[in-house]
Amino acid sequence: MTITRINLQQILPHIESGSTILAPNLRVKEAILSQYLNSLAAKVAITPNVIPIDVFIRKYWELNARQSLNPCNELQLLTASEEFLLWNEIIEESLEKIPLLNPDEMANAVAHSYQLARQWLDPEIFKEELKANSSIKDVAVFSQWAEIFQNRCSTLQLISLVDAIATFTQLLRSEKIVSFPDKLILVNFYNPPPLYQNFFAALQNSEELLTVAKETVNNKLSKIKLEFNNKNSETQNCAAWVKEILNKNANAHIGIISSNKALDRTNIQQALRDTLNPDFLFFNHEEQPVFNSTGNSIRLSDNPIIHDALLVLGLGREQYQIEDLIRLLQSPFLSYGENSESEIETQARISLAGFLRRRAHSTISSRELSYLIKNEERTYHCKLLATQLVQIRTEFRKLQATSTALQWSQQFSRLLDIAGWPGSLNFQNQTSILNQWQKLLIQFSRTSSILPRLDYSSALAKLRLLATQQTMSNKFHSSLPVSFYSVSESIGMEFDHVWLLGFNDQQWPEPVKPSPFIPYATQKAAGIPRSHSEIQFNNGRKLFAQLLASTNFSVHASYCKNDGEQEFRASSFIQEFEFDDSSDIIRSLNQKAAPLRHSIIMETISDISLCP
Length: 612
Fold this sequence. Notes:
Elements: H1 12-16, E1 20-23, H2 26-39, E2 50-52, H3 53-66, E3 76-77, H4 80-93, H5 103-120, H6 123-132, H7 137-156, E4 158-159, H8 161-173, E5 184-187, H9 194-201, E6 206-209, E7 222-228, H10 231-248, E8 254-258, H11 261-276, E9 292-293, H12 304-313, E10 319-321, H13 322-329, H14 341-357, E11 363-365, H15 366-373, H16 383-398, H17 405-418, H18 430-445, H19 456-469, E12 482-486, H20 487-490, E13 495-501, H21 520-526, H22 533-549, E14 551-560, E15 562-563, E16 566-567, E17 578-579, H23 585-598
Parallel strand pairs: 1-2, 1-5, 3-4, 5-6, 7-14, 7-17, 8-12, 8-13, 9-12, 13-14
Antiparallel strand pairs: 10-11, 15-16
């Protein structure tokens, strides 16, 4: 048997007929594909044409552009990275008039507000509302930024995704589209924003399918409420419950649905790791994930191999941070060759790192570093490093003081090659990380049309900013029975069992968080999510009902009474759940796991000889 994440009964006829299936997101797409392909007896099969809606828009915008359809052939779609950098550039240009502590975070907030406005508001109404509320400083500033963004896009012949959807809708209504599928099947689009509703209404030959009808009531669903004294006890019991279900049915689809994913992710990940794999002393969650999820708590720039790559690119500076230099000298991601000199170079770099640690200064100039590593009378004479620094400076002289993002991207690749990055060691999961790094360099190179000519420091800062904005990519594993989502992310999927984690009166429904850049009255009138308590409650009720309808057998809802000095009560959404004692769930499983942990044989090795 396979894990069932979505009911394909209604979708199968359309897959077999070759129709194009539109999914609301990558999660639903992966669920449909894995479910269908795993159900086939044949080893080789044609992959169904299942596409997330935003990817679909991009694909057919480009197809129609190639066939000279105006304005598709005149406007290039912005990628997410390009759009962020464009907003960031606009905001940085206004810093003299509008001082900001964190322009990067502001760029994210402004971009999100612009997307919200385009998804939920008519463009003309939006302009009128901004003009009418220009006395509000935040709204007035946002109005200026939005106008600059639109004008710059027009000048550079670019278009954002939300603006492209509106334009594509108009082309569909006027029947000007040249290239388009014969039939579209819309699967599990529950309550899409008006922008997407208008797009769907303009489709000539389409059909909407919901694998679970809206707010269907499952009368056989078991609903249990659990109360814990602290967060750790709650996550440990949730992990034990997962193991208990998998012991009975290894193919059950289990959903851990968090009211605060960012807060719960690390804790539940560790709890599942310890409970499901108690015999694993060392465990890398990137290489051996315990659940499927969206997003990631690890930024690309925080990954060790990418972190060291950015440090290598910093070698073009005139001044180095001692801490960063020591990190590079000890990096396992730099190759020294395979000859006998590599061991000498390794020992020299270790000696240099020790010497730098004993210095009282936090920085060192590139000239002083060159003097140190060229001194043949010292143990920290690094012959290869000295050669590499000379080659790096030579490469920099080949470029003008200011160059395009494309030129800097090519230069950065050459500098990494000179430094021997990513090394000769083959680390697990390294291929996927390096692929993501190459995609990042490509994205950066494509910003040449957006960004002005950059000097070295600015180019490296922009690349680092992109690496900081991106998180480590999540690969979908069809064999994993556990999924970790927020409530909104779970919609469109189906589960056998669900644990609602952290459902107290403060976190569910989610707190109101209106955009500060769109007039509050406008947000409320348009029904924008999180803009008003009444809207948030109603949206939360619909999402919650849909989640329960999409669960087959049981729902456990939990909350902890205390978090430090703050006390919580159960969310009103789970008040009707049957209260159950939570104290015995984890105890019995821990007793079963204890003998296994104690059976692990630990070998003791004496390292006295290595002590100084």
